[in-house]
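Why run this: before we spend reagent on co-expression, it is cheaper to look at a predicted model of the complex and decide which construct boundaries make sense. The entries below are exactly what would go into the expression plan.
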Amino acid sequence: MTAKVLLQLDCDHQPSTFDAIVAVDAGAETLLRHGGVTPDNVVPLVHGAMFTRGGADLSSTAIFVGGSDVAAAEAVFERVQRTFFGPVRVSLLLDPAGANSTASAAVVAAGRHLALGDPRASCRALVLGGSGPVGQRVARLLAGRGATVTVASRTLSRAEEACRRIATAVPTGRLEPVEGVATGTAGTALAAALAAADLIVACGAAGATLLDAPARSLARRARVLIDLNAVPPAGIEGVAATDKARAWDDAVVYGALGVGGTKMKIHRAAVRRLFQSNDACLDAEDLLAIGESLETA
Amino acid sequence: MTAKVLLQLDCDHQPSTFDAIVAVDAGAETLLRHGGVTPDNVVPLVHGAMFTRGGADLSSTAIFVGGSDVAAAEAVFERVQRTFFGPVRVSLLLDPAGANSTASAAVVAAGRHLALGDPRASCRALVLGGSGPVGQRVARLLAGRGATVTVASRTLSRAEEACRRIATAVPTGRLEPVEGVATGTAGTALAAALAAADLIVACGAAGATLLDAPARSLARRARVLIDLNAVPPAGIEGVAATDKARAWDDAVVYGALGVGGTKMKIHRAAVRRLFQSNDACLDAEDLLAIGESLETA
Amino acid sequence: MTAKVLLQLDCDHQPSTFDAIVAVDAGAETLLRHGGVTPDNVVPLVHGAMFTRGGADLSSTAIFVGGSDVAAAEAVFERVQRTFFGPVRVSLLLDPAGANSTASAAVVAAGRHLALGDPRASCRALVLGGSGPVGQRVARLLAGRGATVTVASRTLSRAEEACRRIATAVPTGRLEPVEGVATGTAGTALAAALAAADLIVACGAAGATLLDAPARSLARRARVLIDLNAVPPAGIEGVAATDKARAWDDAVVYGALGVGGTKMKIHRAAVRRLFQSNDACLDAEDLLAIGESLETA
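The model came back. Tokens follow.
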């Protein structure tokens, strides 16, 4: 039996121990861990994966790209794909800072309560902190499932830029930028988005409140609120990190740890998926599909 | 079965291969090795250990802190402990440059011939090179076992500083600083300490003689002499690195390799201990206790 | 059972994934991978291999020295050997950038068609790019098997320097330096070497043509042509990387991939050999012997 070898290519100087342990628990037998990986130094590392095993054994080698800087990891992910040629390739997973698995888990959690992806239903979503790495992915995944997504950021220009990027990935997406965070006196546009939203996901930086109690009271239609921030204070005031489908008025709420179990399952399943063929290339959409399949399994 | 994962956090740029191989031989199944670890970059590495496994599986992840700079490793060891909270922790072992396992092995060896820890007996110990990393630990462990310990260093101020530090760790310890090395004409205070010592342990830097033959002749009461220096010339003139309880006049003598077998057993047993719970935190005293339990097993 | 531990000591900042995967596939159970290894920092890494296991278990630890800079790896290889003393040593393999296994595979391939090593036969070989790391090894191995070897380099001084070095390793070797590459109008000396060669091996840098079609037509006696360059354009015009003993006029030709299978077998067998004793020290000649034994197995 050919050992399952995972290259852990991390853009940080110290490669993530989190990603390594998840990989071990998902069945990777040998980890080849590299920190400080960039598009400029990644090619020989990829060649080592491509040229050491042949035929069916190629599916026993795979590559994980991670790191705390999502944009840097995306650049490595691109470079790795361009290094492959024809059938000489190995499976590949992008999950920097857990952004893809976390965003997928949030959308899976929302889908338990909302008819995402059903063309007969309509869903309006508001993504707070929507221009950040996790926020952009949540917005992208929701847009891909047919929701109308309002992307909120502290500045309108960043919200607009995020919408443009997401639209490139999801040409059919319905996206609206809006400025601000829902604390103190939310601006008019944001107040309208709050009032209209079926789903609110807060994706801010650790410890930043993006939706306070007064703003929460404006969200009269909201049926699901998800706060992906695990570090106090909460991103959504009143949501605890451990909340998992807790009822709150007419809504259910999730905290970061309440979504975390699903995130871990998706992360592990994605690593297992790598070793089932030599041509998987898993980004956010693929992890969402994996997460949805785990729900129905 | 959850694989036993050991984070090897090393303060040196190149993590120790010695510590890695001992860990493998002690049953660690996956090593996550990191060099250049400091208090400033260790927190995310620890988070990866804390947040990837839950419940009983937390005891299958553990952390080893090492490196050739003992003070730097101690600072990392402190920082790791402060990163844990409540039950969200993993077991932890500090053994930089083998200082803890070596010091423990020396005290275990001495305890074969002296009634250490017996309140009815009294033991006077002289630790040469007592302000160095291993010397301080030997002195600390002996003080904790009730011996009256004279800590010798090349300068009195370093000996005094070492005694102060050890007294913080062992408030009941009886400690006396003394200046000098026991070569040529030992000073009066050191000559008195030599004459009074039941046990002499030389913990100097590689290749430095701390006790020469004339000074040795002053140690009339000594029943055990231990030289922890493995690189010629010997730290105690006349002791061979391979000596293991060799009779010499009325004393027995141990060299570095003669203590080395016990050191290795303690080191391996300590790594095994890590995986028996998620809350072990093993410093010198814990390794001594492990070493003593191995003697009676 | 003591786990097979391989230290992968690599002179590059990022240790090779290629060498790591081959080692895993050859049965190494734990890899301790180090990048940026130099003669100045390698000693403690080697000590860790020497001093952790004793007796028969020493043969379960081994060292692989690699990296893209062959000269740098050779310096580390030397330093490792000088760190060992007496029986306190572990097995050691040098294969930087695959130079040793590749050169051995080329000579093994040539030996299928030419009576190398038979004192009654005579063989004239021409090594193009003969002053490079692979070229020097090919020339050295052929000289050791009794061939008369012409070493071609772009400048005569480099060809002469290579011949001097090879003569140190193979005092009985018959070596002749020659200037130039066999493209356009090859110089007189090179044209003569082409006309006389039974075997031509092209060992140039990736993408450099060393023997073009007109020059090829001068090689009337050549029975084997081997091009070790895998990146287009071919080192020998008309040879495909996948050629493996393909008939071409009166000769057979091999490309880099056609030799690659043999290279991989030699590489893996060499790693396996490391764990059969604690005193193997494998350089090019040893890998050639391994390769020849695999042919007859």
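Chain C has a mean pLDDT of 94. The two ends of chain C are 28 Å apart (CA to CA). Bring this page to Monday's planning discussion.
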